[in-house]
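Summary of Year 1 activities. Much of the first year was spent building the evaluation harness for sequence design. The harness presents a backbone, in tokenized form, and records the residue chosen at every position. We chose the following record to illustrate the format because it has been used consistently in internal testing since the harness was completed.
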């Protein structure tokens, strides 16, 4: 599968694509509104960063106790329920006079619910698409994420000015409702991918199994840490340039979109597996310019170029699937998603703390330098080993032996 036309003809891909797109648009619009609302009320870069990315911190709890649900719940019902929970929580955040502790309690609660969502969505994507279509499918989903973020941050900036941050939060709640409708009425009912009831014990057993493999550990660390540190940089866009934060976020999303198109559609498959380290370095290096507090045009250029490097996640997710048994695909992708989002929340908190004691530009440069360092430390272990990195029972392994693929 090499064309988007083939991809969009795959049954159920389009409604899944629409549901994910609507949810990303909702998260983008409401996140910007919440960051502006909290920063205006407190003047704190740390609290502004945590209001936008603090739900990520709850992902570590979800990854520890809830993640087995990603393969043990019916995908349609789970996706619909997650979107409805976010719709309700976002609407409550728009209530005037809600105290700051209440705001952060809701944010953390939504993060806990969302910890299951990534595994459900991307496990279903892996189930819907044949093995040779996963990278292209995830590329198109990531392109949608980029487009929705560009449009969401642009529209969010307009809505914040026209409606107020609280009005923009209600618009975000409406978009979550659209995502729930797309999932409920566009997807077919499917049985869970794994048997048994979701439980903390099942989650721990599967996490331990996934983490027991050294190649998978390195891939997980590469997916989580360099990416998370750069999202920590992005969490400081509001205090770095309050009037231009929407532009910086939109340009970051544009760069991510460009990278996903190039890697997912045009880079030959034989090259993709070797691009992970280079893309991770590209993701971080341009942010080092923030050490000199660059003017906004230079900052915009650096952010746009750097964000092309987010395409590293496509390469690394494909390798993760090659290393993972098919019946654990949802859990494995959920662990990737939860770990990555948790790291993003930790990095946002760390970046906000650094900015409190130095400056936003200095904190951004320090986070970028840390990302480069981690990438270089992991680089050797990320190179693929032909014939050794495909797990028996994975669709790639089946297609190499009997010609079949999982649809």
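For this record, the design step produced the sequence shown next.
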């Amino acid at each position: 599968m090499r064309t988007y036309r083939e991809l969009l003809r795959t049954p159920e891909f389009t409604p899944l694509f629409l549901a994910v797109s609507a949810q990303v648009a909702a998260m983008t619009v409401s996140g910007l509104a919440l960051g502006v609302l909290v920063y205006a009320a407190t003047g704190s870069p740390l609290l502004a960063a945590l209001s936008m990315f603090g739900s990520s911190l709850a992902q570590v709890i979800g990854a520890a106790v809830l993640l087995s649900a990603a393969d043990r719940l019916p995908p349609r019902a789970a996706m619909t329920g997650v979107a409805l929970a976010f719709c309700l929580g976002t609407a409550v955040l728009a209530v005037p006079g809600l105290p700051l502790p209440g705001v952060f309690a809701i944010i953390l609660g939504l993060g806990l619910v969302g910890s299951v969502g990534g595994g459900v969505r991307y496990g279903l994507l892996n189930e819907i698409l044949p093995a040779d279509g996963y990278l292209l499918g995830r590329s198109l989903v990531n392109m949608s994420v980029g487009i929705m973020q560009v449009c969401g941050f642009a529209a969010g900036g307009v809505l914040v000015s026209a409606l107020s941050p609280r009005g923009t939060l209600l618009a975000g709640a409406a978009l979550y409702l659209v995502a729930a409708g797309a999932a409920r009425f566009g997807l077919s009912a499917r049985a869970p991918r794994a048997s048994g009831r979701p439980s903390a014990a099942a989650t721990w057993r599967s996490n331990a199994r996934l983490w027991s493999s050294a190649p998978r550990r390195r891939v997980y660390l590469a997916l989580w840490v360099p990416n998370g540190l750069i999202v920590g940089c992005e969490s400081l866009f509001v205090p770095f340039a309050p009037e231009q934060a929407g532009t910086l976020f939109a340009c970051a999303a544009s760069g991510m979109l460009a990278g996903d198109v190039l890697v997912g559609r045009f880079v030959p498959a034989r090259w993709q597996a070797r691009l992970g380290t280079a893309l991770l370095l590209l993701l971080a290096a341009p942010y080092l310019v923030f050490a000199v507090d660059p003017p906004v045009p230079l900052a915009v250029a650096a952010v746009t170029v750097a964000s092309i490097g987010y395409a590293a996640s496509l390469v690394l997710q494909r390798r993760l699937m090659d290393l993972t048994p098919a019946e654990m695909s949802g859990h494995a992708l959920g662990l990737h998603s939860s770990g990555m989002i948790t790291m993003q929340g930790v990095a946002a908190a760390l970046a906000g703390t650094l900015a409190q004691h130095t400056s936003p530009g200095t904190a951004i440069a320090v986070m970028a330098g840390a990302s480069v360092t981690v990438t270089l430390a992991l680089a050797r272990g990320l190179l693929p080993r032909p014939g050794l990195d495909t797990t028996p029972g994975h669709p790639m392994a089946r297609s190499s032996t009997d010609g079949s693929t999982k649809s």
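Residues 13-42 form the longest helix (30 residues). Quantitative recovery figures across the full test set are reported in Table 2.
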